[in-house]
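sry for the spam today, last one i promise. struct tokens for design, 170 residues
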């Protein structure tokens, strides 16, 4: 979509916290109005609507829309938004008791080209793993995400993260 639409969408999202919980439908209506401006069949529509449902506490509704956006070609429109959709879809799946689907969705993202969403991938995947009782794997991922941000102890923490999932390697 054009820059003006993107700016207006970003402005709407910046105001999300201005809506009280009971006004969630009003926020979704703002997003729906923006989506109505998109060309028919644009995968940005279901993506934005999924984000709105997700952000207002309706993960089950969001799951269907994230899948629609991804199946509708979101990756071709925006690789960044497609990666966001996979992260957010995994989170929504976890929230509705389908964490194993979230793990399957995010595991390949660990090997995707690196970007500013890498830590979010690891954090969400860690939550999915924890929901499945795989806390050591989740903690390992969180430590791996933290390592580049540490002013010291990077080498040690990276090693400890590995040892959480490979305890036989001392």
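last one done:
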């Amino acid at each position: 979509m054009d820059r003006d639409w993107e700016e207006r969408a970003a402005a709407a999202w910046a105001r999300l916290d201005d809506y009280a919980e009971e006004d969630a439908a009003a926020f979704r209506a703002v997003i729906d109005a923006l989506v109505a401006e998109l060309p028919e069949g644009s995968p940005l529509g279901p993506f934005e609507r999924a984000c709105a449902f997700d952000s207002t506490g309706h993960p089950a509704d969001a799951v269907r829309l994230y899948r629609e956006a991804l199946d509708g070609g979101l990756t071709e429109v925006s690789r960044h938004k497609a990666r966001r959709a996979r992260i957010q879809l995994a989170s929504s799946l976890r929230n509705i008791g389908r964490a194993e689907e979230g793990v399957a969705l995010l595991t390949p993202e660990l090997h995707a080209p690196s970007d500013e969403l890498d830590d979010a991938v690891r954090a969400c995947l860690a939550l999915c793993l924890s929901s499945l009782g795989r806390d050591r794997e989740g903690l390992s991922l969180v430590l791996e995400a933290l390592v580049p941000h540490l002013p010291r102890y990077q080498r040690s923490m990276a090693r400890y993260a590995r040892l959480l999932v490979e305890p036989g390697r001392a």
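The longest helix spans residues 79-95. ok im logging off now
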